[in-house]
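Researcher: We're reviewing a set of sequences before deciding which ones to prioritize for further study. For each one, I'd like a predicted 3D structure that I can look through quickly. This is Ribose operon repressor. If possible, include the structure in C-alpha coordinate form so it fits the rest of the review sheet.
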Amino acid sequence: MTLGVLTQHLDSPFSNEMLRGVEKTLEGTGYVPVVVSGHWKSQQELDRMQLLIDRRVDGIIILTGHVSQQSLIELSLQVPIVAAGHDINTAQVRSFNVNNSLGGYMATQYLLDLGHRKIAHILGKMDQKDAVDRLNGYRQALSIAGIEYNPDLVVQGDFSEEGGRQAIKHLVANNIDFSAVFCANDQTAYGAILGLKEADLDVPDDISMIGFDDLPFSTYSNPPLTTIKQPIYETGVKLAQTLLSLINGVMMK
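Model: Here's the predicted structure for Ribose operon repressor, in C-alpha coordinate form for your review sheet.
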Protein backbone atom coordinates (compact mmCIF):
# COMPACT_ATOMS: atom_id res chain seq x y z
CA MET A 1 0.00 0.00 0.00
CA THR A 2 1.32 3.44 -0.91
CA LEU A 3 0.68 7.09 -0.10
CA GLY A 4 1.80 9.86 -2.42
CA VAL A 5 3.79 12.77 -0.99
CA LEU A 6 4.15 16.00 -2.97
CA THR A 7 7.11 18.11 -1.90
CA GLN A 8 8.67 21.02 -3.80
CA HIS A 9 12.41 20.36 -3.67
CA LEU A 10 14.04 17.16 -2.45
CA ASP A 11 16.88 19.17 -0.88
CA SER A 12 14.60 21.40 1.22
CA PRO A 13 15.44 21.05 4.94
CA PHE A 14 11.97 22.41 5.79
CA SER A 15 10.08 19.84 3.72
CA ASN A 16 12.44 17.06 4.74
CA GLU A 17 11.76 17.73 8.42
CA MET A 18 8.03 17.48 7.71
CA LEU A 19 8.60 14.33 5.66
CA ARG A 20 10.46 12.84 8.62
CA GLY A 21 7.27 13.19 10.67
CA VAL A 22 5.26 11.55 7.89
CA GLU A 23 7.63 8.59 7.62
CA LYS A 24 7.76 8.06 11.38
CA THR A 25 3.97 7.99 11.59
CA LEU A 26 3.66 5.49 8.73
CA GLU A 27 6.04 3.01 10.36
CA GLY A 28 4.20 -0.23 11.03
CA THR A 29 1.04 0.82 9.19
CA GLY A 30 1.80 -1.06 5.99
CA TYR A 31 1.90 2.18 3.99
CA VAL A 32 5.00 3.35 2.11
CA PRO A 33 5.43 6.98 0.96
CA VAL A 34 6.12 7.70 -2.71
CA VAL A 35 7.69 11.17 -3.00
CA VAL A 36 7.47 13.51 -6.02
CA SER A 37 8.53 17.15 -6.50
CA GLY A 38 6.53 20.07 -7.86
CA HIS A 39 9.24 22.79 -7.84
CA TRP A 40 6.66 25.47 -6.95
CA LYS A 41 5.04 25.17 -10.39
CA SER A 42 1.27 24.72 -10.27
CA GLN A 43 0.97 22.67 -13.44
CA GLN A 44 3.87 20.44 -12.47
CA GLU A 45 2.28 19.88 -9.08
CA LEU A 46 -0.99 18.88 -10.75
CA ASP A 47 0.83 16.58 -13.18
CA ARG A 48 2.73 14.88 -10.36
CA MET A 49 -0.43 14.43 -8.30
CA GLN A 50 -2.25 12.91 -11.25
CA LEU A 51 0.73 10.61 -11.80
CA LEU A 52 0.42 9.44 -8.20
CA ILE A 53 -3.30 8.84 -8.65
CA ASP A 54 -2.64 6.92 -11.86
CA ARG A 55 -0.19 4.78 -9.88
CA ARG A 56 -3.11 4.01 -7.55
CA VAL A 57 -1.84 5.56 -4.33
CA ASP A 58 -4.37 5.40 -1.50
CA GLY A 59 -4.07 9.10 -0.65
CA ILE A 60 -1.86 12.15 -1.11
CA ILE A 61 0.03 14.34 1.37
CA ILE A 62 1.03 17.82 0.16
CA LEU A 63 3.99 19.45 1.93
CA THR A 64 3.03 23.00 0.83
CA GLY A 65 2.57 24.06 -2.78
CA HIS A 66 0.88 26.33 -5.31
CA VAL A 67 -1.94 24.04 -6.43
CA SER A 68 -5.30 25.79 -6.06
CA GLN A 69 -8.00 24.83 -3.60
CA GLN A 70 -10.40 24.11 -6.46
CA SER A 71 -7.89 21.68 -7.95
CA LEU A 72 -7.50 19.97 -4.59
CA ILE A 73 -11.26 19.54 -4.33
CA GLU A 74 -11.44 18.07 -7.82
CA LEU A 75 -8.53 15.68 -7.24
CA SER A 76 -9.99 14.61 -3.90
CA LEU A 77 -12.88 13.04 -5.80
CA GLN A 78 -10.33 10.37 -6.75
CA VAL A 79 -8.29 10.03 -3.52
CA PRO A 80 -8.31 11.69 -0.08
CA ILE A 81 -5.83 14.56 0.30
CA VAL A 82 -4.20 16.34 3.23
CA ALA A 83 -2.17 19.51 2.74
CA ALA A 84 0.12 21.81 4.69
CA GLY A 85 0.01 25.53 3.97
CA HIS A 86 -3.61 25.58 2.83
CA ASP A 87 -6.91 26.60 4.43
CA ILE A 88 -9.46 24.10 3.19
CA ASN A 89 -11.52 21.37 4.84
CA THR A 90 -14.01 19.18 2.98
CA ALA A 91 -15.10 15.56 3.27
CA GLN A 92 -12.01 14.42 1.35
CA VAL A 93 -9.54 17.26 1.95
CA ARG A 94 -7.95 18.35 5.22
CA SER A 95 -5.38 21.11 5.64
CA PHE A 96 -3.09 22.53 8.30
CA ASN A 97 -1.51 25.97 8.46
CA VAL A 98 0.26 28.25 10.91
CA ASN A 99 -0.47 31.89 11.65
CA ASN A 100 2.35 33.43 9.65
CA SER A 101 1.16 36.99 10.31
CA LEU A 102 1.38 36.39 14.05
CA GLY A 103 4.80 34.80 13.61
CA GLY A 104 6.05 37.81 11.64
CA TYR A 105 4.67 40.10 14.32
CA MET A 106 6.35 38.10 17.09
CA ALA A 107 9.71 38.10 15.30
CA THR A 108 9.63 41.85 14.78
CA GLN A 109 8.39 42.51 18.31
CA TYR A 110 11.30 40.48 19.67
CA LEU A 111 13.73 42.83 17.93
CA LEU A 112 11.76 45.88 19.03
CA ASP A 113 11.93 44.66 22.63
CA LEU A 114 15.72 44.57 22.28
CA GLY A 115 15.57 48.29 21.53
CA HIS A 116 15.95 48.18 17.75
CA ARG A 117 14.12 50.69 15.58
CA LYS A 118 15.83 50.19 12.22
CA ILE A 119 14.82 46.62 11.49
CA ALA A 120 15.42 45.18 8.03
CA HIS A 121 13.24 42.41 6.67
CA ILE A 122 14.45 39.93 4.06
CA LEU A 123 11.37 38.70 2.24
CA GLY A 124 10.50 35.24 1.05
CA LYS A 125 9.01 34.55 -2.38
CA MET A 126 6.09 36.93 -2.62
CA ASP A 127 4.01 34.57 -4.72
CA GLN A 128 3.75 32.43 -1.59
CA LYS A 129 1.17 33.40 1.01
CA ASP A 130 3.39 32.68 4.00
CA ALA A 131 5.90 35.29 2.80
CA VAL A 132 3.14 37.88 2.36
CA ASP A 133 1.71 37.12 5.79
CA ARG A 134 5.10 37.39 7.51
CA LEU A 135 5.64 40.78 5.88
CA ASN A 136 2.21 41.87 7.11
CA GLY A 137 3.15 40.81 10.64
CA TYR A 138 6.38 42.80 10.39
CA ARG A 139 4.50 45.89 9.27
CA GLN A 140 1.88 45.49 11.98
CA ALA A 141 4.50 45.32 14.73
CA LEU A 142 6.21 48.46 13.42
CA SER A 143 2.90 50.30 13.17
CA ILE A 144 1.88 49.45 16.73
CA ALA A 145 5.32 50.61 17.92
CA GLY A 146 4.81 53.93 16.13
CA ILE A 147 7.60 53.30 13.62
CA GLU A 148 7.03 54.37 10.04
CA TYR A 149 7.40 51.62 7.46
CA ASN A 150 10.55 52.14 5.41
CA PRO A 151 10.56 50.20 2.10
CA ASP A 152 14.33 50.64 1.84
CA LEU A 153 14.67 48.25 4.78
CA VAL A 154 12.64 45.53 3.04
CA VAL A 155 14.71 43.49 0.60
CA GLN A 156 13.59 40.72 -1.71
CA GLY A 157 14.80 37.23 -0.89
CA ASP A 158 13.67 33.80 -2.01
CA PHE A 159 13.71 31.63 1.12
CA SER A 160 17.24 30.43 0.24
CA GLU A 161 20.66 30.90 1.82
CA GLU A 162 22.00 32.72 -1.23
CA GLY A 163 18.93 34.96 -1.25
CA GLY A 164 19.73 36.01 2.31
CA ARG A 165 23.38 36.64 1.48
CA GLN A 166 22.52 38.77 -1.54
CA ALA A 167 19.94 40.76 0.43
CA ILE A 168 22.58 41.72 3.00
CA LYS A 169 24.98 42.68 0.22
CA HIS A 170 22.26 44.96 -1.16
CA LEU A 171 21.69 46.65 2.20
CA VAL A 172 25.41 47.17 2.79
CA ALA A 173 26.21 48.30 -0.76
CA ASN A 174 23.44 50.91 -0.62
CA ASN A 175 24.55 52.20 2.80
CA ILE A 176 21.16 51.46 4.33
CA ASP A 177 21.29 51.93 8.09
CA PHE A 178 19.94 48.95 10.05
CA SER A 179 20.70 47.34 13.38
CA ALA A 180 18.60 44.16 13.17
CA VAL A 181 17.23 41.76 10.57
CA PHE A 182 14.08 39.65 10.50
CA CYS A 183 14.62 36.89 7.95
CA ALA A 184 11.59 35.23 6.35
CA ASN A 185 12.97 31.78 7.17
CA ASP A 186 15.99 30.13 8.75
CA GLN A 187 17.69 29.31 5.46
CA THR A 188 17.59 33.01 4.57
CA ALA A 189 19.15 33.77 7.95
CA TYR A 190 22.05 31.36 7.38
CA GLY A 191 22.97 33.24 4.21
CA ALA A 192 22.40 36.61 5.86
CA ILE A 193 24.85 35.72 8.64
CA LEU A 194 27.46 34.87 6.01
CA GLY A 195 26.74 38.12 4.17
CA LEU A 196 27.25 40.10 7.35
CA LYS A 197 30.53 38.32 8.08
CA GLU A 198 31.71 39.20 4.58
CA ALA A 199 30.95 42.84 5.44
CA ASP A 200 32.90 42.53 8.72
CA LEU A 201 29.70 42.70 10.76
CA ASP A 202 29.07 40.28 13.59
CA VAL A 203 25.87 38.63 14.80
CA PRO A 204 24.82 39.47 17.46
CA ASP A 205 27.45 42.05 18.48
CA ASP A 206 26.85 44.39 15.52
CA ILE A 207 23.53 43.18 14.11
CA SER A 208 20.71 41.28 15.81
CA MET A 209 18.90 38.64 13.78
CA ILE A 210 15.86 36.39 13.98
CA GLY A 211 14.68 33.70 11.60
CA PHE A 212 11.49 31.73 11.11
CA ASP A 213 10.98 27.92 11.20
CA ASP A 214 13.40 26.62 13.88
CA LEU A 215 15.04 24.09 11.59
CA PRO A 216 17.20 21.51 13.40
CA PHE A 217 20.42 23.05 12.02
CA SER A 218 19.58 26.44 13.56
CA THR A 219 20.79 25.18 16.94
CA TYR A 220 24.21 24.50 15.42
CA SER A 221 24.62 27.57 13.21
CA ASN A 222 27.32 30.05 14.19
CA PRO A 223 26.00 31.75 16.21
CA PRO A 224 22.97 29.62 17.14
CA LEU A 225 20.00 31.27 15.47
CA THR A 226 17.15 32.89 17.36
CA THR A 227 14.05 31.90 15.43
CA ILE A 228 10.26 31.61 15.48
CA LYS A 229 9.40 27.94 15.90
CA GLN A 230 7.07 26.18 13.50
CA PRO A 231 5.85 22.68 14.45
CA ILE A 232 7.33 21.25 11.25
CA TYR A 233 7.90 17.65 12.33
CA GLU A 234 4.63 17.65 14.25
CA THR A 235 2.78 18.88 11.16
CA GLY A 236 4.15 15.92 9.23
CA VAL A 237 2.87 13.60 11.93
CA LYS A 238 -0.55 15.26 11.89
CA LEU A 239 -0.76 15.10 8.09
CA ALA A 240 -0.05 11.36 8.06
CA GLN A 241 -2.41 10.64 10.94
CA THR A 242 -5.20 12.60 9.30
CA LEU A 243 -4.77 10.94 5.92
CA LEU A 244 -4.86 7.49 7.50
CA SER A 245 -8.08 8.49 9.26
CA LEU A 246 -9.62 9.72 6.01
CA ILE A 247 -8.68 6.46 4.30
CA ASN A 248 -10.20 4.48 7.15
CA GLY A 249 -13.31 6.65 7.25
CA VAL A 250 -12.57 8.16 10.65
CA MET A 251 -13.22 11.89 11.15
CA MET A 252 -10.32 13.64 12.91
CA LYS A 253 -10.75 16.96 14.70
